[in-house]
Amino acid sequence: MARKLSTFAIAYDFDGTLAPENMQEYDFVPAIGMKSERFWQEVRELTKKHDADNILTYMMHMLDKAQAAEVPVRKENFVDFGRSVSLFEGVNGWFDRINAYGKKQGLKVYHYIISSGIREMMRVRPL
After folding, report:
1. Is 79:27 a contact under the CB 8 Å cutoff?
2. For residue range 48-90, what is the model confidence (pLDDT) as tens digits?
3. Which of 7, 20, 35, 108 is the residue whose CA sits 20 to 30 A from 67?
4. Strand 6-12 vs strand 107-113: parallel, antiparallel, or unpaired?
5. Which element (helix H / strand E) includes 11?
6. What is the pLDDT of residue 3?
7. Cβ neighbourhood burial of 22 (10 Å; 0-12, 13-18, 19+)
8. What's the CA gap between 27 and 46, in Å, rounded?
9. What is the pLDDT of residue 36?
10. DSSP string computed for 45-57
11. Separation of alpha carbons 55 and 16, rounded Å
């Protein structure tokens, strides 16, 4: 009889953990006519000015800037923006490798990405 595998979970951030840059910086920020440094500086200023949450502020700022630049922000647009997001070397294949290693150790590994990013940008390619 095969032994039952124990459950093991790994949680990852996306930006800076799986991808070297913030996902918005690849194609979205240039599409709205901005440089990344300026975009994030404006987010910091708005966050401070309104004593607001940084994540909610950057999302609002994305929508405001997209509207001003007439850049559509539908689901399919975020999928397109995500196509240029690069991953750290070794991420491709990581999940299969760690799953196989876990199985040898008697573990069923579950992977979770916890991010304030845009899901459609992360789901373009299988991880």
Report:
1. no
2. 999 999 999 999 999 999 999 999 999 999 999 999 999 999 9
3. 20
4. parallel
5. strand 6-12
6. 78
7. buried
8. 22
9. 96
10. HHHHHHT--HHHH
11. 16
Task: Find the helix packing angle between 36-50 and 54-68, rounded to 10°.
Answer: 120
Exposure string of 52-70, with b = 16+ CB inside 10 Å and e = fewer, is: eeeeebbbebbeebbeeee
CA atoms within 13 A on the CB side of 101: 7
Q: Out of 69-78, 93-102, 114-123, pick the least confident.
A: 114-123
SS3 content of the chain, % helix, strand, coil (to 5): 45, 15, 40
User: Reduced to 3 states, what is the DSSP secondary structure of residue 112?
Assistant: strand
50 three-class SS: helix
Q: Which residue has the tokens 């032994």?
A: 3
Which amino acid type is present at position 69? Answer: A
Chain centroid, CA 104 distance in Å: 30
Task: State yes or no: pLDDT of 26 exceeds 90.
Answer: yes
Provide the 10 A C-beta neighbour count for residue 105. 11
Work out the number of other CB atoms within 10 angstroms of the CB of residue 91.
Answer: 15
Closest CA to 56 of 64, 123, 101: 64
